[in-house]
Amino acid sequence: MNILIKNIKELVQVEREARIKVSGHEMANLETIKDAYLLISDGIIVGFGKMEELQNTAKANEIVGFEVIDATGKMVFPSFCDSHTHLVYPASREIEYIDKIKGLSYEEIAKRGGGILNSAMKMQEISEDELVESALQRLNEIMKMGTGAVEIKSGYGLTTDSELKMLRVIKRLKSLSPLTIKATFLGAHAIPAQYKSDPTEYVDLIINEMIPQVASEDLADYIDVFCDRGFFTVDDTDRILNAGMKYGLRPKIHANELDYSGGVQVGVKYNALSVDHLEYTGDAEIQALLGSDTMPTILPGAAFFLNMVYAPARKMIDAGLPVAMASDFNPGSSPSGNMQLILSMASILYKLTPEEGINATTINTAYAMDLSEELGSICVGKKANVFITCPIPSYQFMPYYYGSNKVETVILNGEIQSLS
Question: pTM of this prediction?
Fold first, then answer.
């Protein structure tokens, strides 16, 4: 399909030369073009500029036969990239939400068999087809709100069979959904009850049985570990990452959500693509991340939902780090995949400017999935994953006007998607 979007009020996050991420003070810069056009051909962005440039004869001849969308009064953004989700799950956990309201902590709920272990029990009972059906509904939901790429983790299996089931579901979703999907193996999401007295035995199972089978079926792009207080230690994480890397699985780490766990440092040590959560991030963690290739990724939805401390995003950016923000869409601690809301939280809760927030939810989250060479900005040669807003006064309106869907048209892989 060839598409011309014309009369765009403002084309947001344009790049003349592609960047893979944006760091420090550069996150405050956001290039846009007012009164713009965008050309898409065969799924790729092939041109953009000011409308007046489109009027010359050469350009006019190039676009004969293009489907034309008039975006008068509307803006065009690159689709959001959501680099951390658990959106394949067997059931919601609203009863635990009520427990939280009554004052129980995340750790207290986990200790009595709730949380991740609750989902793991139900995961063993549900079929792959049921998981695919429910996950497709969630993917369609987040697509309507502007997400064009998503990372999905396993981790609600905690047995070899159930972990493989989850990853096979994610593999099926890659072929069924227009979203760009990355799969992460997270067998080390929690320690099953039967291994509480000897967690090393479960780590051995992950290393000796799960990882080889995941790799043999080519089911995962990345490997993850929940390295935090009450979950997996730095030594456990070290062993698991070593094993995964032997099979070509690059690390992504759950780190420092509950304490200063050492997860950031072990992630940097193993060149993790990202370290995620980061509520407890101090000078030592910032120093470890500076100069690394690891993307610090904050998950505002989880901190908000669990009423936790907020990661020091402002301090991290001021120190020169890049920052990404993702949804952590999951049934227990962040039951929303709305990246428009995450963009709003970036400003409301973390004091990022709209420009910094847009960079954090597009180009930097694309980097956190190793996709920033093809997604995350409006750039010639990149995949045409974009959305057109309803009429809005400015791009700053996107984080400001929280709570409603401001996306009117979604284009993924150069194809206009049905939002019905």
Answer: 0.96
